[in-house]
Amino acid sequence: MKELSSAIQLIPLENYIFLSVALFSIGMMGVLFRRNTIAILMCLELMFNSVNLLLTAFSAYHSDPSGQVFVFFIMIVAAAEVAVGLSIVVMMKRNVDSIDINLLNRLKW
Amino acid sequence: MVALIPYITLAWLVPAFPLVGFLITSLAKNKLKHNQAGIIASTMVALSFITSVFLFFILNSSGQDSATLTLFNWVSAGDLKIPFALLIDHLSLVMMLIITGIGALIHIYSIGYMRDDERVNSFFAQMNLFTFSMLLLVMGANYLILFIGWEGVGFCSYLLIGFWFKNPAFNYAARKAFVMNRIGDLGFILGIILLFFTFKSVSFNEVFSQAATLQSGAPILTLITLLLLVGAVGKSAQIPLFTWLPDAMAGPTPVSALIHAATMVTAGIYMIARSSILYNLAPITSNVMIILGLTTAIITAIVGLRQNDIKKVLAYSTVSQLGYMFLALGLGAYSAAIFHVTTHAFFKALLFLGAGSIIHAMGGEQDIRKMGGLRSKMPITFLTFLIATLAISGIPPFSGFFSKDLILTKAFEISPWLYALALGGALITCFYMFRLFYLVFFGNQRLSSAHPHESPRVMTVPLMVLSVLSLFGGFLNIPALFGGDSGFENFLHKAVTSKESGEISSATEVGLIIVSLSLLGIIIVLAYRTYVKKSTVPAADGAPSSLIARIVANKFYLDEIFAALIEKPFGRLSDFLFKSVEVKVLDSAVDGVGTLTSRLGSLVRRLQQGNISFYLFAMVAGILLFIIFILFV
Amino acid sequence: MILLIILLLPLVTGLGILFLRNACTVRIVALTSTIVNLLLTFVVMGSSPAATFSVEWNNLMGISFSLGFDGISLLMLLLTNLLFPFIILAGFKREQNQISVLNFLILLTQAALIGVFLSQNAFLFYIFWELTLIPIYFILLLWGGENSRAVTLKFFIYTLAGSLFLLIGIIYIVQLTPGVHSTDFSVLNQLHIPAATQIWLFWVLFIAFAIKMPIFPFHTWQPNTYTMASTQGVMILGGVMTKMGIYGALRFLFPMVPQGVLYWQNIVLVMCLIGVVYASVIAFRQTNLKRLIAFSSMAHISLMAAALFIYNYYAAQGLLFQVLTHGLTVVALFYMVQLIQDKTKTLELPQMGGLKHAAPKMAILLLMILLVSVALPFTAGFIGEFLIIIGLAKQSIWVALFGGTTMILGAIYMLYAYQRIMLGDKNASLKNTTDLVRLDYWMLIPLIAILFILGIYPQPILNLVEVSANTMQNLLTSATGIVTAMPH
Lengths: 109, 633, 488
Fold this sequence. Notes:
The structure holds three protein chains of three kinds. Chain B is mostly helical.
């Protein structure tokens, strides 16, 4: 554990932050502009993981394990979310024979 | 000398007997047969009477003025401590003797009177409950116990007025009596509360001993006494709260005799006499009582002139006599008021029971225009009724003469005008009583369908006992003028503090008596000429009559005025509050909030297009804006 | 520990009941559970106030699961546990849908109410406070009468909106606590919130309780809800849930914002007195028996609220005594209403009459209940209202006069109702009507007996609440000095 966190600290913190901001922005753009539902889900995962990365880095730099605990939480939630999300996609494919997100427009006034 | 303390513990028996009677007759209502309920109830009241007589002798021979018996601690909250305590002194003993003595006679009478009623057991249960409450009222050692009895008698009166509950008019009368009493009760309870704040106690002994140190005319005392007076006005049926009493005649006649003549309606007089120390210190209240009493006495006497229902006539005369008692209280002659309560209890109970006997004989008919010629058919009733009529008119040596004369003399001591007005009322009383008497017993029988007969022994014996009391009751208090020693007044002076008043010479006193007696004689003759010689029968209800006669016959339209000024606006206010304020304003305001929310919603929902990408875009934009706001603002 | 048992017993029994099929068994099990709870309450009353139960729950937000009691909560606990056996009993031998679900919901309400009264922690209090709404919502909705959907929805949203203010208030107060935040009453009560804050914070907290009680003009949910609700629903609502408002005010307003209370006292008092007269006057012309009783109940509650905000010693004692009396009276009265409806097939007063011929015993018992309601001496109603009126008179004789008008107006409409229902000539449509049966006696006699015994010997209850009433009063008097120095 000690070695791992010192290994993480070899790279300056800024680099982690830049990387995760980049990952997060890519994920966000994907979520906003893609129409393929599966792609959107994947972009979501990307955003999660950018946050996870950041949490881990901060955790190591602060030598406070609670950040990593949160990472585990997020992973679990993400796994659950993917399970639900994919099943929704499957149902969608079966019902309307398409996974275009813009077809899911019934949730409105 | 007998030690009072060991015997005083017996005092709890006095109210306990009727309570036991009530429990037996009400719980075993369906099992008691025939006359059993009546016999049990009468026995219980008679036992109370015997105990009271015993206590009377004990108190007399003990030389003590009063004794208190504390049974248990009723309410204790902070410095408010109200023990459940009974007070035995001369005043409460007089009242106890009246209640149990006359009560027992009326109970016995009722055995005959109510024999054929299907709910006779309930009747006796309620009568016993009434006796219990009334005894509590007069025996309570503090204002709160008095108030328990006060409300209790009001409730029993409600039950008994509406005893024949099939008739909606009777039920209405019962409700009216209860509500009007309640108006007074609110004043009464506020008075008690103020007493408590002023004296830190509601017990008679403590309040009076502290009040004696207060200055006469202190504003707080005036306020307290006025509030207590409001209670007394309600209970004792004075202007403006008297209209319930004539209506209360809806109850069975023994009820009218016991509750609405002899006992309950005199509770207000008892209470004020009990608080004589407070009232002595409140001259304003005393003046109010003089005005109230005199007005009530005269106005209701005038109304009594045009009544044709035998019980209504008696009811108005009761209100009028109560007015005299209030006059006496206002004059500071508290023992005179109690003396009049006593004699009035004798002769008015007798009059009502006599009226009951007549109604019984006439098969339920109460209209005196339809009676007549009953003298030969009902000799005992005739004779006893005559005694009572003479007594209420104030003819010596009947009891009413002594008590009424005492009050009139006291009035003269204050002002001759007061005397003249009071005497005027007495003359009117004499006229309508003899009008009633002549119409009922003289002339020809005007209703052919009835077959009048003398009542059974169980009813006539109480009549006879009461007529003896009405005849000789006045001798309890023979004034010094006739060589007496004013025994009754002296007896009461140990419990009641009467105001000192100026003496008038015995020559003046004799003169006054001669004036009043000769006027009374003229009135009786006048009534005789009108109703026996000319056999005038009052006109039927629908017959045309003069405006004044109509006003009088309709009791100055007081009920109508009440209805127009209070009942109707109250009902309208109720409707207005419910239909307009409650539904249209308050509830609409609440619904309006809901409507507003849904209106806003329908505006904002345009944003919800259903396009997930748009939602996501909005979300991200929102978060970015938020971050910018935090970082740069 | 015993407190935890009292809290959980109804919940556990309620869940167990869901699996029972036989209607009769369901009812008997539910009744037994409530009776056991009542007995446990007596045990608690005998034990010392130290018998509390506390577990840390969420350290971060300072929430602890702590149960405890003082005189006031004990009285409320007694009220709840005394009434619920009767509420369950009221459903016996009656045609009802989904008996096991209904009894589950009733027991759940009981558990939630017990939780409200025993919580020693503001957050826990709030959870239970909201929890009571859920079962009562379904009881009112599914077993209610005509138009139950709209009426229940309004009731639900109205009270929920009030609770929202309460939540905001609690959060605001909690973030004022020094150091590690705590939501325990013991900590919150020690806070000295600045007077200026108290003045607005008072309303945030007050609204929730005002709606629950209800105080004029926040009462409009009440008449319709009472009129529509099933007997058991209205018993819970009128008997216990309205007292939650009073209890909440005692728990929050007086210890936490005493200066706010003093600052607004007169205005709130006027609202209460308007409520007394307003409700009584409206009750006077109501033709629907349930609506009449709803308004009469509002008049009584308003008088209690006036006593609450005048808060001197007598008023406090009277108020707490009246809380118990009113609960018992409401349950007895609504059971009577149910019987009347069963027998006459209507609730409209003008269509009734003459029931006394067919059911004389019922008439006597009804009259006895009405006597308690119009505060005749020797009934519990008198002790409570008398003490309250003394308390009001201590402030001003005019306040007492207005408060006392219930004595007159109550007599008017209650006796009117009695006359319309019972008296009058025989009614042909009531020919086959029977008098009370044994179940009715089991229901009514104990209630009436308690009400009369308390009227003759009220001391046990007065003693029970005396210490707490004293403490509360001291809180307020100690705040007096500060508030008078403050510019208005």
